Amino acid sequence: MSKVAVTQDSLVVLEDVEKTYHMGEVEVTALSHTDLVLDRGEFVVILGPSGSGKTTLLNLIGGIDSPTAGRVVIDGEDITHYRQRQLTLFRRRTVGFVFQFFNLIPTLTARENVDFALQLTRRGRRRGGEGESAAELLAKVGLGERLEHFPSQLSGGEQQRVAVARALAKKPAVILGDEPTGNLDFRTGKLVLSAMREVNRLLGTTVVIVTHNQPLAAVADRVLHFREGRIAGTQVNAHPVPPEDVEW
Ligand code: ADP
Ligand code: MG
């Protein structure tokens, strides 16, 4: 029945997905007839002009929104018809988000921001499991020396790495980044990508990043090119470039 080739390794499965927004009389089809399978542990970059449906796709993968038609299965869970409450729990369990604007809580230190995410996660899971501390997660993204800094005392790149550590707190199956380097200069953007790549390699977390920066595509295992609400092309990088080495 399925048109897409799903295996045990498939983490993201989109089958003939469509997303239409209704704005009064006007209908906007943001995504049409999209089939997509991403495997566990893949590092994927999505490129495409503004308005081509990139954010819509991330929102569907991340359970922020539901499709108008088709099927969405993430980590073996069919979330296509989930209601808000179920989507909230799904997101908490399965997805880490890294946004363009870092969305840290300004009155909490780096450590407390990550701790907060850890607490939410522990509450969402019945099985306890100690897992890593906020300090360990921050060390993983190179911020072991910045634990007690408030967001306003950190550079943009450092704030974004706190956001990566926070996304890691729940050991998500997938990390989604919508222009995570959009507000960073090249050098700090590379540091953030390095942190995401390292997490991907160390923990096998699937990473999907939307970017406007064409050269960044070189770091991905796979690049999806979006055009007018469709995946217009796919490119596999046999030898992905380490983020540090990208010529930007
Ligand atoms: P991208 O991230 O590639 O810039 P989006 O996925 O945000 O593109 O948007 C795709 C299309 O859907 C655009 O034409 C946009 O205006 C429209 N769109 C996105 N979100 C909404 C929404 N919540 N309501 C109405 N139209 C939307
Ligand atoms: Mg967008």
Structural write-up:
This protein is an alpha/beta fold and 248 residues long. The chain has a single domain, classed as P-loop containing nucleotide triphosphate hydrolases (Rossmann fold, 3-Layer(aba) Sandwich), CATH 3.40.50.300. It is 29% helix and 27% strand. Strand 1 and strand 2 form a beta hairpin. The radius of gyration is 18 Å and the shape is globular. The site of adenosine-5'-diphosphate has 12 residues, from strand 1, strand 2 and helix 1.
Q: Structural class, from secondary structure content?
A: alpha/beta
Strand % is 25-35%
Low-confidence stretches: none
Under CATH, the homologous superfamily reads P-loop containing nucleotide triphosphate hydrolases
In short:
By secondary structure, the protein is of the alpha/beta class.
Sum up the structure in keywords.
248 residues; alpha/beta; Rossmann fold; 6-stranded mixed sheet; 4-stranded antiparallel sheet; 6 helices; 29% helix; 27% strand; globular; binds adenosine-5'-diphosphate; binds magnesium ion
